[in-house]
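Margin note: ligand = N,N,N-trimethyl-histidine.
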Amino acid sequence: MIGDALMGLLQPRKTLPPKLLYDETGCRLFGDITALPEYYLTRTELSILRRLGPSLRAHVPAHGWMVEYGASSSLKAAIVLRQLDRPAGYIPIDIAPDALASVQSDLHPDFPSLEILPICADFLRPVELPAPARDARIFGFFPGSTIGNLEPTAATAFLRLARATLGPGALFLVGADLRKPADRLLPAYDDAQGVTAAFNLNLLTRLNREAGANFDLDRFAHRALWNDAESRVEMHLVSLADQSVRLGRQHITFRRGETIHTENSYKHAPEAFDRIAAAAGWRTIERWTDDDGLFALTLLGGTPGA
Ligand code: AVJ
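Resulting structure:
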């Protein structure tokens, strides 16, 4: 972890890997973010998922297996599984072993005959499905707009990898936030209560605790900005002074106003999303959005030969 952090902080334009945001406190704060009035993403995605019903069932074969990328809670899986035709199995993939254990124990009572085989892994690396799922009809599920954290080339690489994991006949339902005016986007990443600020700044608290750093939390501030050319919201931590910070044995200097770029949230227009998916061998079968066009769930299927 120190290695990852240090590498980013020694670049001319300082960055920290977004996955470091999600320690225990970070996960709790992100949970708080999803309930904020300004953070429309989670609540909008849930409303779309709840209404998929027959239109999803028309595409997904009975007795299939669902594979979920980034399964940190059972909420969305339960909503989707309930709308599928007698699903046989469910494979949640997540890096957090505790989250996986509670997903399994939360789902079991409601789906007693569903075979649940969790995989603890970083889904940006190749994952092999367990034997019972190998000859099954596979339905991949990647909710939450997590794909928006990835630059377009990385998103394509991920989707290509997912296609290899899920197999040529698989379907893949991917949630992604849509492009929209900055005055709607920015409050979602810079809320009035300061929860997102606490989430971003917690990264420094974590480095102080786990990487022997001495960031002064009063000398950095949260900043969210809309990068229109890249079509993404960026989170930064701005240095409020000229200062030097220790990280392990290194000293890192900051000029006043210099930032550490901590996260990107890409907002793809539907055509842009389709292009990214097509470059990875997927074609768009159907797309569901809310009435306000805030968020999209896109059902992908394989392109023959790709
Ligand atoms: C978990 C990546 C979907 O980008 O909206 C929320 C993370 N960062 N507020 C997002 C996040 C700041 C979130 N994702």
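The mean pLDDT is 95.
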